[in-house]
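#onboarding

Welcome to the new folks! Below is a worked example of what a typical request in this channel looks like: someone posts a single protein sequence, and someone else replies with the predicted structure as tokens. Don't worry about understanding the tokens yet, we'll cover that in week two.

Example request:
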Amino acid sequence: MKSLSAKDRRERLKRAPEIAPKTLATLAKQHPTAHCELDHRSAFELIVAVVLSAQTTDVAVNKVTPKLYERFPDARALAAVEPKEVEPYVASLGFFRMKSKALVGLARAIVDKHGGEVPRSMDELVELPGVGRKTANVVLGVMWNEPDGVVVDTHVMRISQRLGWTKNTDAEKIERDLCAILPREEWDHASHVLIFHGRRVCFARKPNCEGCSVSDVCPAAFDAEHVGRKAAANGDGRRKAAANGDGRRKAANGAKAGALRKAAGPRAAKAGSHAKKRSPRATRG
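Example response:
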């Protein structure tokens, strides 16, 4: 395993933003089929899949959407039913009741405000219940190659930090950093390439630096496990990092669940506020 000196890493960090487009092009050659891995045939199917993907995997979402799309092929079909009719189609996913309510609320907003068609602007998309900037950029980028920024998920966040493209840990700040160093026409493509790289090479734990096409310019090469995630050198540190990680996951899960409750309506939000008072069995979804 190659070891880099502190000086080498500093020099790579200094060059990283300037050579970011070239680095991205090299990664794109390593992942020539990089694309959105949520199955869809329309903007409606895509926005539904993105909402369902919260706190679960694309693979899990792709298992349930064929029957869901067959039963509810467009926003009008989904808007015409109650959430209870949607639940059986997404029951294998986490928070499926809230997601069912969120999807119906989303569909009704699309029908009421946009005639049943998914809008094509950031401002209109983020006004839809349950849709934030990340979801909106996925739809804008994948469907029309008109993103308003770079989609920043956990893979993009981790890898952009390792590559020296950002020093930030906040998703919105990272997005601004990436937009500043990457050509606008690459914003959508960049997120797919980085996500592919994160899922196949630059893992959170034990990243495969030997199999990485940009290890010759990456400031974190051969020590990447300690960048973009909490790492500890001793047992106490590991326990502390694990506790911090659990706290962050709980906070992130709470935020995502809150967004789903907000999209699902006041009744779901009220139910969520009493969740801690219930037993684990009563709140299991």
